[in-house]
Each structure stands twice: as structure tokens, then as C-alpha cells.
Write a structure and sequence with these properties.
The complex is a heterodimer of chains A (about 900) and B (about 280). Chain A is α+β, with helices and mostly antiparallel strands. Chain A has 27 helices and 32 strands. Among the domains of chain A are: about 170 residues, DNA polymerase, domain 1; about 180 residues, Aldehyde oxidase/xanthine dehydrogenase, a/b hammerhead (Aldehyde Oxidoreductase, domain 3, Alpha-Beta Complex); about 130 residues, Aldehyde Oxidoreductase, domain 4 (2-Layer Sandwich), CATH 3.30.365. In chain B, strands 4-5-10-6-7 form a five-stranded antiparallel β-sheet. Chain B has a four-stranded antiparallel β-sheet with strand order 11-12-13-14, with helices on both faces. In chain B, strands 1-3-2 form a three-stranded parallel β-sheet, with no helix packed on it. In chain B, helix 2 runs antiparallel to helix 5 and helix 8 runs antiparallel to helix 9. The chains are: A alpha+beta (about 900), B alpha+beta (about 280). Chains A and B meet through strand 4, helix 6, helix 10 and helix 27 of A and helix 3 and helix 9 of B. Chain B: This is FAD binding domain-containing protein.
Chain lengths: ~900, ~280
């Protein structure tokens, strides 16, 4: 067939059942993305004869004789389409993976559609922004600013990759073509718990194009943990690349390597696997009971009690809670449940491996190439110099890519065959095999005096780690954040991380803090009602204040610098904002209106080892190259790193070239998680930039004879007293004298600071249907000194939107056999534009941070208070307390009726 | 997504496309559902859009909708005076979970034949008392009442190789007064319930169509407007296993919403006023 793509004619026959998306990518148009491959997310939107279509559900042959326009053909670098420019200037993206589809859709809007964005944008999902920034982009509202030399910090400068993102030229993980590349597909277990008795691979190997079938017999018999931390000992080594026991429905049973995805799929279908189905357990309390099916026979000393499926127990007691409860005037106790939820980053997991000069190269979608490299060395017994792992731009992470779940298989295939190999998750595999948030059930018991002073604070947490222990322990410890926020002399914390036959839980924005925050902040609200004290006031009376110890699990020395009362300011700002908007009218007579608040506070880096190294070099081209391991996946650290370097070097972001996330080209970096991309890696960039600046100034001082204190950086030169020396001169001079303007510096995730926030909502609840509408949303956040106001606002908005999804729209359904019922974006509903209100973001300007420029990472903390603030608002509106998420209408309405009939009776 | 088991697409099917039907075949219209999920049992697609069936044909006796009429064309159809039910066409299109981009290729017949409880083209055509014209592989033609076509979630009366050719909506139905209610768990999401009430102009009858909340469409008809209690009893009489359970709603909530919205529709049509 023949079609015209972006003005160029292609004569090529697609495969009979091929969709237009993969056909266009085969022709080299990598701007056409795969988010869902099912017509739900819109990332693959292209125009067919000028009309926008989802190319993943458009048969490729329908392009025959027609004209296709992709993002690459809409405008050109340097000659952008107006909508591309608007998305760059808003900026209307974070990770940028949905952006091409957003632009290709909104560039077709009529005036009527622009006036009805909830409908016009319902076929385009964004997981990062919370949609406000996208609305601004569509409407042509811009926030990106230019920065003067040396003034980059504090300006809303654009992301370094902004231009590439809006033109479709930003390369994501799978946006490349390698000759001879083989494709892996995985056969997943249909059973939640089974022993693999035999696998007959002969029929699979007979499929034309199939090269290999890998089973548990073909992989290194070496246990590891898929969780990414610098210190691998904080997670149990309980996982094999492929195993002869499967412990959740969806677990890998075998992998087929073939010339094409189609052949690999056919190979999987032809594998004959004989299972011995074992009893399974899905509930952690049931899994801890005597006689429950045992998942692991592991002799790993990490595992506390394998017979009762207990991975880890935690028992901490400070003071005397019994005495505290005895001294209380009011006691509240409640049990709160946070369910399993999925990251739903739009770029699915994927990796590509190949051999080059005898070394294994892995290009992957990860939040930490450095640790992924270490794990591959461990698994395949490779020396550090034999492996390179790198990331191009990554399409969203949210913790989901703090896990090695694709790199191992591509490495296995490439090391085995010597050929390039790739593995790209489907959306269904994201839901059924990637690591969602830990379901946690927390019982919170609070005692208080009549004036609200807490006398006892007791928490019991049962966390479902799923079939494997990755992140099971660290998320449990992280829950202490929800306890340390309030001063109380008597605290007790008991926690259990429990194996069950469900998908392994993992890291997700808010990492083990979000679920306890839901429980504790809901309980505080209930306590306030019992005490007849305003919930904000109860918090004001009990929050930790600067110089007080942060006590959660133990009372001892810590590494946290806590100097300002940011949280109290957040409470006041949200209180004022809710009061200011208190006259909002209900949508109608059948709606009940109420308001709720919740707070959170946590440290700005993880308690585990977190290291980063940055290299800054002034090149002969007079551009500063900043090399740092941090991956960019929409969290915006790249922008911040460039800003920090430009600021310290007295120049503008245009003079900074960022090299990142490549173990061959950057130093070690633990990874972009736990808000450390700014706090730790940013400090490394700051120190390296300062070191290069000092060296340049010293050189200029020596050269001019002006004392160094009289020398200052001035964009492309140095001002020395009343003289100005250009960087070109200094570089030439340096070269002659053998001086290099380059420096490496390391930073460590200690000492740490605290970041905090408060969320307020006003909601309306329909008394009959159970529908919840958010009338007003406000978050106040202490992000320290703000490096990039537009990005900080965007992170908070995105975190609130994701939190709203987790609380109101997303529902992970398992059937009775532990199989997920809705593993797709059509039935697992992440918020669309229409679901998300605008959030007023109020920033508190504290200066107590020990982070770079006294900034604080805040992209995680923002999600923690969202669900409890919603539940508290719903309680305020309805008089009914909902202690289990999600708050979907069918779970709301029934108790409203019961409540009404009780009050009527 | 790529349907890798497909080995052939019949791009120029004969005027009677079912003639060479065999196992592993599937009709391809817009393809927007077919390509949205794995189809490991399919080998061949037969492209019905190549037959260029007339999308919308107003006749003296009503309206004929070709099965391959796109949602876009249906949405854009200009309604002549007096067809009071015309508003239901747009509202039914807007009830799709999918976006306007999908409407560019998705078809009315495709949605009907997919036979999901939440299929809004099913709601529309059942409410408007449509007949479906079905062509068998042997060339014989039969007409089925829209109400009887869908038999359960993702199930219908089509025999292998049988194809939906057109949907015929009678003129009298287009002139009926209508009232509708829809509920979704998320804003602009997939229907949890979608109810339509219709009434003869100037009459006091009520024909209530209940969809999305039930595994198949239901019609509850009253010769004269029922009181609230009678209406509720008729909904309570629906067998328990007909209320649909899926991620878009629970049976209890759907029955509850149906009671609530049916009563709203009853009141709206009782109130009279403009059609």
C-alpha cells in the first residue's frame, strides 16, 4: 500500500492485523507513543486526512492512499505549530509521554471544543500534571520565563527537553530501532499459587521465528530483590528471574525470544505447562494465621516468620501508652484501609539490551540506572566494567520504576544469544505484574485530654507485601512519618509486612507514608469531632514544632534539621483559604456540602543510603557540561539541576548542557526516588558547580592580578574589578597552563530536612447517588526556597490529582482466584481532565533546608494528605465516616441511606 | 494493538459478505474495539466499511441507519422539525466512554454487535423501538426487535457469519417525547446506568428503557403513567441476576440508581411541557 506520512510517500505493506501505531513507528515516527494500546489514553493520536484518530486502534491498512500527520509533521524544530509552542511555554507537560497526543488532539479543536475541555480531552490521559497545565497550554497561557545570568534559581525556566518534547523528538526508552533485535514475551501464571511441574517447549520452539524459550531451568539460580536501593540488604533476596514456584497470578512462568512480537506471543500460547495448583491466600491477616498456605520456604534470615508468611515485624514503644490512655479524657479508635493502586505512568516498563565491544548495554525505563547495573552484575556474575545501563527520557515513574523487572530478562537473552533483545510491557502487564502500592490496614488509637493534648498514640499496621518482599520493609518504616508529625509522650507502633499470593507491592509516590497518613489524619479528624475541637485547631495544638524531636519509632539522635514552623503556616493558610471560600453554594438541593483538612510531614531524603555524584566541566565550546546520574521522568530535576548550575556559574540555562542517567557518562546516583533527585543530586550539582566556579575565579584572579574576592562570574566572562575577561580567554589560558575547569562532587542523603503540607477540600456529596464532587481544593506546602515556581506548582497539582484518583476513581478489583478483573485503563479509571478540579497551591517560604539553595523536594509529600482530607470532608458533609478507600459512589450511597433512615427513625 | 494472529483482511468483500464465512473470521467495521484487546482466536477480518452502506437514510416510515454509520455522522445528523426524539441521538453519542476521536471511526453497528451492557447505541435503538435487519451467510434476511438482540454481557442473537446490515427506527418513535438519565462512577465515564423514558406526544403512557445497569436491555411499559410505587415495584421485580456486576457498578447500586432515576423520568414526563 502507499500512504503519505508528514508529506512523504511510503510504499510498504503492513502486516494484515497491524495497527497504524506500530506501522508508523516502524517507519521511524517515534513521536507516536504507546500508553495503553487500546484507544483509552490518546498518546498515539495522529491525523488521518486531517481527522484525529487513536492510531493504536486504527487498522494500518486504512492509511492506504491517505495522508497521515504525526507530531513530527505538525511543526518542525524552529518552526513550531502554535499549539506546540503553547505546550512548551505553559509548560503543558511533565514527563512528556502524553504530550504528542495532547497536541495532536488539541490542535484540531473547534471553538466549541475549546469551550468544553472536559469532553474534548476525555480521550487523552495525563498522569503527571493534574491537567491544569494542559488547560493552560490549550488556552495559550504561558508560565515559562527566561532567566538572567546568575538568576536562574527562582525563575520558571523551561525544561531542557521542552522543545524536543513538543516536537516529538524527545527519545523515550523504546524510541529506537536496532537491526536484528529480538523480542521477548512472557507467559504469565494463571494461578495465584502453583508449582511448575513441567514445561513442554517443543511446540513453542517449532514456531517460525522463535529462538529460545527460557524457564526456571535456564536462569542463574541466584536470589535477588527487584527493589532498588543502594543498600540491597534492606530488601529480602526472595526472587528468582524465573522460578519453579509461582506465587501470584501473573508471575512469569517462561519467556519466549523471537524475531517478532507476534512469533513470541505465539510461542507463549504453545507452551504446555503442567502446574500443581497450591492453596493460596490473599488477605494478610489470613496469611498470618496458623495453617495458612506458606508462600516462602526461604531460609533468608531477613524473613521473620516464614511459617506465618511474616516478612518483617516492627514493634516500637516510647513512653507508656497504657498510662497515656488512662490519662485521656477522650479515646478514639478506628481501623482504616488503603487499597492496592497502580502508578499508571503512561510509558510502560521496557528495556533493550545489546552487546557492544564485549560489554552488555542496557537501555531502560528506570528510576535508577546505577542500581539496575549493580543488580545485573549480581545476577549474571559480571564485573562492573562489563555492563552499561542508561536511560533516555522516561515516561513517568512515580516509584514504579524503582524496580528491576524488565532489565533482567533482556540481559539474559542478550548474554545468551549475543543479539539485541527487547521487552516492552503491555498495559495489562503493568496492572498484573508491576508493583503497585502496598494495601495497608491500620488501626489507630488516640487518647487526648479535653483540651486536645494527645496523651497516647498507638498504631497497628498490617501491610500486604504481596508475593515478594521488595520494598516491604522500607515502606513499613516510612509509615513512621504519620506518627512523628504529632507530639505525644506515649507512642506505640506495631507493624507487620505479610506475604500473600498477590502481585508484589512496591514503591509508589508517598512510599509507605500515604496509607498511614490516611489512617492517622482520618483518626485525628474523628478525635477532633469527639472533642468538639476544630480539626485544624487540634492539629495546631499537637504538631511537632521546630527544635522538638521527631519521634516515631525510636527516641534517639536523628539527622534531621528542623528549624522552621512550616507546617503551622500550612495549617493557617489552608484554614484561611477554606474560610474565604466558605460561601460556596451546593450544586443543588440533593447535595450535602462539607470541608475537610489533613496534613503530612516527612524527611527530604530516605533513611537508607542515598548517594549522588555530579561532574561539571567547562568545555572548549564554552558550554558547561553537567553530568549527573539522575533520570528525568517528569519530576523536573533536570530543570532544577540546570538552574542550580547556571545560578552558581553566573550564567543562563542556555549555557548548560546536561548529560544524565548513563553509567558510562555519569557518576553513581542512587536514583530519582524518595524526593532525592533534588535534595541529594541537586546538592552534588551545586557543589560541583561551585568548585568549577571557584577554579575559574581563581584563574581569572591570577591572570588579572585582581584579588579573587573582587572577581565575579558574568555569563560568558568574569568581571575582575573593572576588567572583564572572557571565558574564551580563560579556557585558552587554562589549556596553555594545563588547567582544566572541571570538578566532581558527591552528596549524601544526610543530614536531612523536613517538608510538610496541608490539604483542604470542600466537597459536595449527592445524598441519593453517592457521587462526590470537589468544589474547592487547596494545598499549602513548605517546599523551602523555590527553585522553579511553575514546576513546584505542577508537582503539587499532579500529586493532588493522583491522590484524588487513588481516593475517588481508581479501584483495583481482584476476583476470587486473585486475578485482576480490570487490568486496563478503560476499567481502572485514572482521572481524566473532567475528574480533576483546579487546586490552589500556596507555598510557604521557609529557609531551614539543608538541601541545595535551601530547597526541599516536595513531589511526594503532596499526595499524602489528599485521601484523608477527602474522607474528612465527606464526613463533614454527610455525618458518615468512611474508613476504607476508594470513596466511589457505590461504596458511599448505601451508608448515607442507612444514616438517613436512622435519623428519621 | 497489533492483532498478530490475523493472516488476512478481506478488503473488498462481496455484497453478501457472509458467504465465505468460516471459523476465525470477524467483521471489521471501525475496528476501535476489535483492535483494543487481544484477539488470539481470530485469523481473518472482513472489512464491512468497504461496502459503503448508506449511513443515514430518512424514509417516509422513519430512519434507516446503516450498520457502518460512524458515531461522528450520527452525532452530526441534522434533525428535522418534529422529531422530538432527535435529542436522544446526541445524548447517546455523548454517553460513550470514548472520545470524539474514536467517534471518527467507531460505528453504530459495531457498538450494537459488541453488545456490552453500557453500549449507548443499544440504549438509543431499544428506546426508539428499532428493528435490526440481519443478513445470514445464505443470503436470507431477518428482522429482530432491538430489545431482543442483546441477550447478556457481550452476547447477542447473531449466528456465525450473520451480519447486522441496518437499524430501522420507526417514525412514530422519533416523534415521542423523551427523558433520560445517566450515571457514571467517574465524570464522563462509562455508564453505570442509562435510562430513557418515552411517551406518545400528548399521551400519558410511559415506556422505560433500562440499560447499562442490567446485563441486557429491559423495557418496562405502562399504558398510562404509573404512580411512584407501581414504577418502583416494576423495577424491584427485575430478577436479581439481571443487575450487572462489573468495575463500573455493583448490582445493588445499579438497582438503587435505576429506582431513583426512573422516578425522576416519571416525574419529568408527568410534568408535561415541551417535548
Amino acid at each position: 500500500m502507499s500512504c503519505i506520512v508528514n508529506g512523504r510517500e511510503f510504499g510498504r505493506e503492513p502486516a494484515p492485523g497491524q495497527c497504524l501505531r506500530t506501522f508508523l513507528r516502524e517507519l521511524g515516527h517515534f513521536g507516536v507513543k504507546k500508553g495503553c494500546d487500546a484507544g483509552d489514553c490518546g498518546a498515539c493520536t495522529v491525523w488521518l486526512d486531517g481527522a484525529p484518530v487513536h492510531s493504536c486502534i486504527t487498522p494500518a491498512f486504512r492509511a492506504d492512499g491517505r495522508e497521515v500527520t504525526t507530531i513530527e509533521g505538525l511543526g518542525r524544530p524552529g518552526a513550531l505549530h502554535p499549539v506546540q509552542r503553547q505546550f512548551e511555554d505553559a509548560p503543558g507537560f511533565q514527563c512528556g509521554f502524553c504530550t504528542a497526543g495532547m497536541i495532536m488532539t488539541s490542535a484540531t479543536f473547534t471553538e466549541d471544543q475549546r469551550a468544553d475541555l472536559p469532553r474534548a480531552l476525555k480521550g487523552n490521559l495525563c498522569r503527571c500534571t493534574g491537567y491544569r497545565a494542559i488547560e493552560d497550554a490549550v488556552k495559550g497561557v504561558g508560565a515559562v520565563e527566561a532567566a538572567a545570568p546568575g538568576k536562574a534559581v527562582g525563575a520558571s525556566v523551561g525544561a531542557p527537553a521542552g522543545h524536543d518534547v513538543v516536537t516529538g523528538h524527545a527519545e523515550f526508552t523504546m524510541d529506537t530501532r536496532i537491526d536484528g533485535m529480538l523480542h521477548l514475551k512472557v507467559l504469565h501464571s494463571p494461578h495465584a499459587h502453583a508449582r511448575v511441574l513441567s514445561i513442554d517447549r517443543s511446540a513453542a520452539l517449532a514456531v517460525p521465528g522463535v529462538h529460545r524459550v527460557y524457564t526456571w531451568e535456564d536462569v542463574p539460580r541466584r536470589r535477588f530483590t527487584t527493589a532498588i536501593h543502594t543498600d540491597h540488604l534492606v530488601d529480602p533476596d526472595d526472587t528468582y528471574v524465573l522460578d519453579d514456584t509461582v506465587r501470584f497470578a501473573g508471575q512469569r512462568v517462561a519467556a519466549v525470544l523471537a524475531d517478532t512480537v507476534g512469533a513470541a506471543e505465539e510461542g507463549c500460547r504453545r507452551l504446555a505447562v503442567e502446574y500443581e495448583v497450591l492453596p493460596a491466600v490473599f488477605d494478610p491477616e489470613a496469611a498470618m494465621a496458623d495453617g495458612a498456605p506458606q508462600l516462602h520456604g526461604s531460609d533468608d534470615p531477613f524473613v521473620r516468620d516464614p511459617a506465618h508468611n511474616i516478612l518483617l515485624e516492627l514493634h516500637a514503644h516510647i513512653g507508656d501508652v497504657d498510662a497515656g490512655f488512662a490519662a485521656a479524657d477522650v479515646i478514639h479508635e478506628g481501623t482504616y484501609f488503603s487499597p492496592r493502586v497502580q502508578h499508571a505512568h503512561l510509558e510502560t516498563h521496557g528495556s533493550i539490551a545489546w552487546m557492544e565491544d564485549g560489554r552488555l548495554n542496557v537501555r531502560t525505563s528506570s528510576q535508577s540506572p546505577s542500581i539496575a547495573k549493580v543488580k545485573l552484575e549480581h545476577l549474571f556474575a559480571l564485573r562492573p566494567d562489563q555492563v552499561r545501563v542508561f536511560c533516555r527520557r522516561v515516561g513517568g515513574g512515580f516509584g514504579g520504576k524503582q524496580e528491576v523487572i524488565t532489565e533482567d530478562l533482556v540481559a539474559l537473552a542478550t548474554l545468551d544469544t549475543g543479539r539485541p533483545a527487547c521487552l516492552e510491557f503491555t498495559r495489562e502487564e503493568e496492572f498484573t505484574t508491576a508493583s503497585p502500592r502496598h494495601p495497608m490496614t491500620l488501626t489507630v488509637k488516640l487518647g487526648a485530654k479535653a483540651d486536645g493534648t494527645l496523651t497516647a498514640f498507638q498504631v497497628r499496621n498490617v501491610s500486604n507485601t504481596g508475593a515478594y518482599g521488595n520494598h516491604g520493609g522500607e515502606t513499613m518504616y516510612a509509615g513512621g512519618a504519620a506518627v512523628m508529625i504529632y507530639r505525644c509522650p506515649n507512642k506505640k507502633f506495631d507493624a507487620y509486612s505479610v506475604y500473600t499470593n498477590t502481585v508484589p507491592s512496591g514503591a509508589l509516590r508517598g512510599y509507605g507514608m500515604t496509607q498511614p497518613a490516611f489512617a492517622v489524619e482520618s483518626a485525628m479528624d474523628e478525635l477532633a469531632r469527639a472533642l468538639h475541637i476544630d480539626p485544624l485547631e487540634l492539629r495546631r495544638r499537637n504538631i511537632v514544632r521546630p527544635a522538638e524531636p521527631l519521634v516515631a519509632l525510636h527516641d534517639g539522635p536523628d539527622d534531621v534539621v528542623f528549624g522552621e514552623d512550616g507546617l503551622a503556616t500550612c495549617l493557617d493558610l489552608v484554614g484561611d483559604a477554606l474560610a474565604r471560600t466558605a460561601d460556596q453554594v451546593p450544586p443543588g438541593p440533593e447535595w450535602l456540602v462539607g470541608a475537610g483538612v489533613a496534613s503530612s510531614l516527612h524527611e527530604t531524603a530516605p533513611p537508607t543510603e542515598h548517594l549522588s555524584e555530579a561532574w561539571v566541566t567547562l568545555g572548549d565550546d564554552l558550554i558547561y557540561e553537567v553530568a549527573v546520574g539522575t533520570v528525568e521522568f517528569g519530576e523536573g530535576t533536570s530543570t532544577a539541576h540546570v538552574q542550580i548550575a547556571a545560578n552558581q556559574l553566573g550564567t543562563t540555562p542556555s549555557r548548560i548542557r546536561l548529560v544524565q542517567s548513563d553509567t558510562d557518562r555519569t557518576g553513581f546516583d542512587t536514583g530519582a526516588f524518595a524526593s532525592a533527585g533534588l535534595f541529594v543530586a541537586g546538592n552534588a550539582v551545586l557543589r560541583a558547580a561551585n568548585a568549577v566556579r571557584d577554579r575559574i575565579l581563581e584563574c581569572a584572579a591570577t591572570h588579572t592580578g585582581v584579588h579573587v574576592v573582587m572577581c565575579t562570574m558574568d555569563d560568558d566572562g568574569v568581571v575582575c574589578g573593572d576588567r572583564r575577561v572572557s571565558l574564551a580567554e580563560l579556557v585558552a589560558l587554562g589549556r596553555a597552563r594545563g588547567i582544566r575547569f572541571t570538578a566532581a562532587r558527591k552528596a549524601y542523603g544526610s543530614p536531612r530536612s523536613v517538608t510538610s503540607n496541608t490539604q483542604g477540600f470542600r466537597v459536595a456529596v449527592h445524598r441519593v447517588t453517592g457521587e462526590i464532587r470537589i468544589l474547592y481544593s487547596v494545598q499549602a506546602a513548605d517546599a523551602g526556597v523555590i527553585i522553579n515556581p511553575a514546576q513546584v506548582r505542577g508537582q503539587v497539582e499532579g500529586g493532588v490529582a493522583q491522590g484524588i484518583g487513588f481516593a475517588l476513581t481508581e479501584n483495583h478489583h481482584l476476583d476470587g482466584s486473585g486475578v485482576m478483573v480490570n487490568p486496563n485503563l478503560r476499567n481502572y479509571r485514572i482521572p481524566t481532565y473532567a475528574d480533576i478540579p483546579r487546586t490552589e497551591v500556596l507555598l510557604v517560604g521557609s529557609a531551614d533546608s539543608v538541601g541545595p539553595m535551601r530547597a526541599k523536594g516536595m513531589a511526594e509529600c503532596c499526595i499524602n494528605p489528599v485521601a484523608p482530607a477527602l474522607a474528612n470532608a465527606v464526613h463533614d458533609a454527610t455525618g458518615v465516616r468512611y474508613r476504607a478507600l476508594p470513596l466511589t459512589p457505590e461504596r458511599i450511597y448505601g451508608r448515607l441511606l442507612a444514616e438517613q433512615s436512622v435519623s428519621a427513625g | 494493538m497489533d492483532l498478530n494472529t490475523i493472516t488476512e483482511v478481506v478488503r473488498r468483500p462481496s455484497e453478501r459478505p457472509g458467504a465465505g464465512w468460516h471459523e476465525g473470521d470477524a467483521w471489521l467495521a471501525g475496528g476501535t474495539w476489535l483492535y483494543s484487546t487481544e484477539q488470539p482466536d481470530l485469523r481473518r477480518l472482513i472489512d464491512l466499511t468497504a461496502l459503503h452502506w448508506e449511513p443515514l437514510v430518512p424514509t417516509d416510515t422513519g430512519l434507516e441507519i446503516g450498520a457502518t454509520c460512524t458515531i461522528r455522522d450520527l452525532y452530526a445528523f441534522p434533525w428535522p422539525e418534529g422529531r422530538s426524539a432527535g435529542v436522544l441521538f446526541r445524548r447517546s453519542c455523548e454517553a460513550f466512554l470514548s472520545s470524539f476521536k474514536v467517534w471518527n471511526t467507531a460505528t453504530v453497528g459495531g457498538n450494537v454487535c459488541l453488545s456490552l451492557p453500557a453500549g449507548p447505541m443499544i440504549t438509543l435503538t431499544v428506546a426508539l423501538e428499532a428493528q435490526y435487519e440481519l443478513w445470514a451467510p445464505d443470503g436470507s434476511v431477518r428482522f429482530v426487535d432491538a430489545l431482543d438482540f442483546v441477550t447478556g454481557d457481550h452476547r447477542n442473537v447473531l449466528a456465525p457469519g450473520e451480519v447486522l446490515r441496518r437499524i430501522v427506527i420507526p417514525e412514530h418513535a422519533l416523534r415521542r417525547r423523551t427523558a433520560h438519565r445517566r450515571f457514571t462512577l467517574t465524570r464522563l465515564g462509562r455508564s453505570t446506568v442509562f435510562l430513557v423514558g418515552t411517551q406518545r406526544p400528548g399521551g400519558d403512557d410511559l415506556v422505560l428503557t433500562v440499560t447499562a445497569g442490567t446485563t441486557r436491555p429491559l423495557r418496562i411499559a405502562f399504558d398510562s403513567l404509573p404512580d411512584a410505587r407501581t414504577l418502583r415495584q416494576s423495577i424491584d421485580a427485575v430478577p436479581a441476576d439481571v443487575w450487572f456486576a462489573d468495575p463500573n457498578g455493583t448490582p445493588d447500586h445499579r438497582r438503587h440508581l435505576t429506582r431513583h432515576f426512573a422516578e425522576e423520568i416519571r416525574r419529568e414526563l408527568t410534568a408535561g411541557g415541551p417535548a
